[in-house]
Amino acid sequence: MDTAIGFVGAGNMTEAMIRGLRSAGIDGSRIFATTRSRVDRLEHLRATWGIVPVRDKAELSASAGTLILAMKPQDIDQAMTELRPHVTDRHLIITVMAGVPCAAVESYLNGTPVVRAMPNLPMAVLAATTALAYGRNAAADHRAAARSLFNLLGHTVEVGEEAMDAVTAISGSGPAYVYLFMEALIEAAVQGGLPPEVAKEMAVQTVYGAAKLVKETDSDPADLRRRVTSPGGTTMAALTVLEARGFKMNIGDAVKQAIRRAGELAARR
After folding, report:
1. pTM higher than 0.70 for the full model?
2. What percent of the chain clears pLDDT 90, i.e. is strictly above it?
3. Which residue, 151, 189, 191, 198, is the most exposed by fewest CB within 10 angstroms?
């Protein structure tokens, strides 16, 4: 990376990304952050990850060429009003706010390139899936810079912005679905007689191993499921219950609801 990175916002998304960047070898002296009110969070990020907190958006813009908008979507108007006087054509603006299209950010600016990114929480351990969509002023070098940044944190894909609601529901929110499944698996294991620490270790490793097998063999998950499921066996007994209770349908409905909500957020901009 040949430019410093500045974060507007100091919440969980910012910390996950900073953790990933530091793990990827980016020096803390090249990472800046500011927030409107959470001074305690800035101090936490400084003490934990060695980044540089700055007092306001003017200092942030002077310090960093890549500015990442990671505040809450409802704070965009105040944040961009404060940021706008200090942004120039040397900056690249990247928004990671859910439901905020590039055009909404561009409306505060005068030709500054904007990239919309939807990373997910595993970027903290360099295992993110990040979708990128580009604003009208994002040229080839801006696109390359955004890909380079998020490739440090995992895998990137490029999509049209019309697909971002679906990306948000699958990749952005998807880890929460997996964590909920893991919670249920751990609870069931404890109820089955395993100690909690053993139940957690087994559930985590099972999910990790299953995903790793799909990733490294490029197998179809349905094929792997069939290979695990012996007729009349324990796996079939369990899957019969899940299928009878609409497991796939519930996941599908959940994703549709997340897409709908993402659309509602975008419509407000």
Report:
1. yes
2. 87
3. 191
